[in-house]
Amino acid sequence: MVRSLIVLHIALAITLAGCAAVPASRCGAGEQLLVSELLYFGTEKHGGVVTPEEWSGFLRDVVTPRFPEGLTVWPASGQWRSAGGAVTREASHVLNLIHPETEVAESAVRETVTEYKNRFQQEAVLRVKGKACVSF
User: Fold this and answer.
1) Which of 74, 95, 114, 129 is a good FRET partner for 105, with 20 to 30 A between their CA atoms?
2) CA 132 to CA 71: how far, in whole Å?
């Protein structure tokens, strides 16, 4: 009985050790660990598309004030399935942001997504968030 309890405790300890948090990536000399965000903005909207002028205004008025340190954006094309089940193929814009992991930055990203969805009648904006070792 005692032996089986010892074996059970050892097995439990080994199992729980697998649940321990994985340490963060170690960056090399001169690098810092930051958040890398990719946001995918579709351009189809009720009654047309988001025009180049509307997109430029959104970047100028919404994104840049929240991320004045810099950003990268490029045109793309893609497809996705809406909540109603329809597959939509459309031109889109990809926005890449690199920022510290702070509540201020997290709020700024959420506000950016919400503003785009509201302004251009979008069902969704795809957000891909990860960590990256960055150097300047």
Assistant:
1) 74
2) 15
Of 125, 127, 134, which Cα lies nearest the Cα of 37?
127
Residues 120/113, Cβ–Cβ less than 8 Å = no
Q: Are strands 72-81 and 87-99 parallel, antiparallel or unpaired?
A: antiparallel
- Say whether pTM exceeds 0.70: yes
pLDDT digits (tens, 9 = 90+) for 43-97: 999 899 999 999 999 999 999 999 999 999 999 999 988 888 989 899 999 999 9
Alpha-carbon distance of 26 to 123, in angstroms, equals 37
DSSP code, position 93:
E
Rounded Cα–Cα distance for residues 122 and 43 (Å): 8
Amino acid at 60: R
Tell me how far CA of residue 94 lies from CA of 24, 27, 84, 105, in angstroms.
27, 26, 24, 18
H or E stretch covering 15: helix 2-17
